[in-house]
């Protein structure tokens, strides 16, 4: 019996009284500057003499709407993202065993509810923490023996190629892969501390993207290199965030969809600094989890 399902609800109405009721904020988001090179960024200490990244990012002042106040709640298959009321039984997200044993099944169930898919495979998670000195946002570098920092570069976790590659890695069975007609990769993002009052996550409406906005980029880890998209600026991009996301809420957003038309396929996202952060606001701590979902044969 699915005991968690009754707790999962898409949020369709604005929350209760809030000190921040503006429909939007203006904040700087870091776009890739046009470059002739294939961009790369290190997620860990690079080799001596090698820069952390080989490209420049330009901050652009953008309007970021509070999606809680949208006239119509966003949908994962149109805008590319949706907010869910999804309480968790995990109390310590730094306890990797507890996260894998309890949070992974919770997140898989949420991913199925959010996407309408038939099977879900959680394969990765990462805890991030804003730096105490509120340093300028970077690609979210991980310091030695610590969790990763907030990622302040606009990016999408999968490209056309790495999305397809991930299916084979997760299923690890060529016959099972051959039977899949449609699959998607979603992120599940939540605060693990309390209401997010600084450095929230902004997501780009997938309907405002064009193919030419996305640039293939490498992310270099100690033992592998991943492939993601970073984004060039477009005045057409429409950005949103959910104000004061709390621990019982989860933002589910699309990172890849094998269906090539009619649905959101990529949702670029980034941490950003809220203007006028309240004095003494706690530093953001969050967990992001990646889940591959497979749709039934009829899809």
From TrEMBL:
<feature type="compositionally biased region" description="Low complexity">
    <location>
        <begin position="1"/>
        <end position="11"/>
    </location>
</feature>
<feature type="region of interest" description="Disordered">
    <location>
        <begin position="1"/>
        <end position="21"/>
    </location>
</feature>
<protein>
    <recommendedName>
        <fullName>Methyltransferase</fullName>
    </recommendedName>
</protein>
<dbReference type="InterPro" id="IPR044053">
    <property type="entry name" value="AsaB-like"/>
</dbReference>
<dbReference type="GO" id="GO:0016491">
    <property type="term" value="F:oxidoreductase activity"/>
</dbReference>
